[in-house]
Amino acid sequence: MRNPKSNLEQYTVVGQSIPKIDATEKVTGSAQFLIDIELPNMLYGKILRSGYPHARIARINTEKAKRVPGVVAIITAKDTPLIKFGFMKDQLPLKHGKVKSVRDEVAAVAAVDEETAAKALELIEVEYEELPPVFDPYQAMKPDAPIIHEEMKSNTVNLPFNFKHGDVERAFKECYRVVENTFKVNFVTTAALGTMGCIARFDERGDLTVWTNTQAPFEYQKDLGEANGIRGSRIRVIQPKIGGSFGRGMDVYPIDIITVLLAKKTGRPVKIVFNREEEFSASPTRQPCIFRIKTGAKRDGTLLARDAELYMDNGPYVSWGAFDARVMMATVCGLYKVPNVRFNAHVVYTNNPYSGTVRGAGNPQSTFAVESQMDMLADELGIDRLEFRLKNANEPGYITPQGMKITSCKLGECLNAAASRIGWKGRHKAGRNRGIGFASYFHVGGGARVFRSDGCGAIVKIDDFGKVTLITGATEIGTGSDTAMCQIVAEELQIPVENVQIVNDDSSIRPWDVGTHASRTTFIGGNAALLAARKAKQKLLEIAAKVLEEDVTNLEVKNGIVSSKIDSKKTMPYDTIVRRGHFKLSGEIIIAEAFYDPPNEMQDENYRGNISVTYGFGTQAALVEVDRDTGKVSVLRFVSVHDAGSVINPMLAESVVQGGVAMGVGLALTEQLIVEQGRVMNASFADYKLLTSLEAPPIEVQFVESSDDAGPFGAKGVGEAGVIPTAAAIANAIYDAVKVRVTEIPMTPEKILTALEHRQ
Amino acid sequence: MKKPLTLQVNGQVHELLVEPSETLNSVLRKRLRLSGTKKGCDTGGCGSCTVLLDGKAVYSCMTYALAIDGGKVTTIEGLAKEGVLDPIQQAFVRNGALQCGFCTPGFVMATKALLDAIPEPTEEEVREALVGNLCRCTGYVKIFEAVREAGRELARGRKRNA
Ligand code: FES
Ligand code: FES
Description:
The complex is a heterodimer.
Chain A: H1 23-28, E1 43-49, E2 55-61, H2 63-66, E3 71-76, E4 98-99, E5 105-111, H3 114-123, E6 125-130, H4 137-141, E7 161-165, H5 168-174, E8 177-185, E9 197-202, E10 208-212, H6 217-228, E11 235-238, H7 254-266, E12 270-273, H8 276-282, E13 285-286, E14 289-297, E15 303-313, H9 324-334, E16 340-348, E17 355-356, H10 363-381, H11 385-392, H12 411-422, E18 434-444, E19 456-462, E20 468-472, H13 481-493, E21 500-503, H14 521-548, E22 555-558, E23 561-564, E24 571-573, H15 574-582, E25 590-596, E26 615-626, E27 633-643, H16 650-670, E28 675-676, E29 679-680, E30 699-703, H17 726-738, E31 744-745, H18 749-759
Parallel strand pairs in A: 1-12, 8-31, 10-11, 13-17, 15-16, 20-21, 27-30
Antiparallel strand pairs in A: 1-5, 2-4, 2-6, 3-5, 7-16, 8-14, 9-10, 9-12, 14-15, 18-26, 19-20, 19-25, 22-23, 23-24, 26-27, 28-29
Chain B: E1 3-9, E2 12-18, H1 24-31, E3 50-53, E4 56-59, E5 72-74, H2 87-94, H3 104-117, H4 123-129, H5 141-161
Parallel strand pairs in B: 1-5
Antiparallel strand pairs in B: 1-2, 3-4, 3-5
Helix pairs in contact in B: 2-5
């Protein structure tokens, strides 16, 4: 929708760094997360996993386990309706016939407490006949590889992610320099502090209520219903506070369906919460991939062509992870102006843990490859790395080969700002063993139409006391979107933000939303809230017109007071207006609803279409120091500059970026799930290296002045941005410091040392 | 075999019968229904379960309840006094030192122990003191700011009262 050109100074609430509206309940411990919810008569569930990467289930015996006092129910596949679920309908919640990864669910127990359920799990006897497994996507594609889904006859998933534009072959021939590399991104995990979990309860009417950490409650309602053979109309989805999610909450998982199955079987509420070990080994990972990529440019530094071929280790079941390919494609084709592009991704079934989507949805992976090559190519051409990027930077009016229309875009400014802030003086000038690296990003910033609807519904209600309630479909996963939406409503209504509350935890009252993904919540949910608030305001003014006996066009609200612009005597607090309009004969109340579905396009089968209304851009710059003896990389400074449109709440946006950068530094340097023979070998915080307070770098965040016509008060999405270019910026900084190029993340000390040795 | 246990939690004395295997975390969360203390791992890896035991920060998940018989425990629920947030809590709110908030009770309690011991810590001291608490959302930057601001705030308060 159109907004007055944003100059945030004209606003009183929007643009202010107010604390999160739920901050107080979070610092006092009263915020209720899923693990904190206890229901009367509740049982606790546990899941038995196969432990074999690929095997036939010969026999399951639950008799001994059933006799454990306190065990109420044990279920295996034969107790279930055997309804397959997932994108490709390629898995059962409890596996039948065959297991295809060590994390595969084989049986589940409900008992009076977790200890009892755990004891019973140990007594379930399962006999397996082992089958030859396959863990490597290249191997899995070979004709003689063991087939994981026999009925599909191939391990290559039937999901073609192929795109081509221009004449790539010819363009490469015209290039002055071409670089070609293979990059590798390994398994990492969201490692949210709150683990996965689900609570399910059937009521007397047979209707189901679930408490869940999902990011997409209405998709969840639909998918969970289908997977259990229950109509969506009989399911109510409640989201308590979510203890971090980062993409994990995009799919329905076996744990959700199993919780429902146990609740159904026992007739009692059932709760299953992953312990940390399960979280590491059985929650979705970031999509790992092997990235073969080639980029070429003319002698003057103009990019001419980019060609990428990807091999994605999908694990045995397809979830959102596979669709990361779409985001990788957008970056290969759209980050910097490249006229000739080709992209092919092979999604391959293996017996590894299955991937989901994680913050950035493939973009950190592809940006690592694309931006590493930007530096290599600049060096080959003998052009300054910053100049090379500036020359090819996206700009307003540019349309990517896939048809993504760039509207607001300040990538050039971001590049310059990052360079000047970090003190770029040219390559290899940062000091002994020190280096500076840059990387930029291009990401959706105005929704992403990956479903037929990309909308969000909102309701704004003003009660007799002047309390304003925003009821929205949009889900907050910690980032601050609830606060931003409240600020938007307060700004539009011109009332103090303290008077606004938000309700968005119950599918039975909230209007529909597609879910929190693609950095869309503040943009889409914010636009929906703005539209509803605008309607509510109109109603308020119409009522005020009658109460104050003034023409509605002469009325305005400021600081919660409705007054006439032409007659200063006609003035009244807005809550008084509401009461006057309500408590009278034929009274009325103020409630307004809106549905905002952005004018973006679903891509066609050739992956063409303007998937987002607008796009976010930015540049990061890292200053690192490499210890040549140990291979250890220290991030001394980190600068993150963004074009996120107008920023609704700078403090919260900054915090989201900082968290993204920290996650990106982990991705770059320390984090990796060690997967051997399909098994996660480091399933604990002691062994999986999240950044701690000691390693966390200083992170300087800057938002360039910008405003997007389509965004609420000019805002664009920024939720994922922080993590996207980080690994690439660090890889480039490492090269600048010690002239070694590491093409596989994490860039551990061992890899750096090996690379240093090779160089000598 | 259950054994008797006396614990003072947030000033209130509790007498309980607990199993030797029960941790302080489980006593707090399951028996006393004090769910502000979180459980992010149960193995001493994340710090979300941090409480004060006789003034020192401990992982409640790594503390057997029977081992601290007679101990004085302060949890996140015991920090605000008569509805007024502790200056540490206020500083976390003001500085935007939290997102999802799952780690927050642990960080606030670890900070309490730190500031009781070192009233105005340097950033290095803050980093050292919080190394046992993980946050996946914030990148820690604003947490450090909040902790140091709370330290300054408390020091000012002490000077006023002196
Ligand atoms: S729950 Fe105690 S350290 Fe993680
Ligand atoms: S705020 Fe989410 S883990 Fe710290």
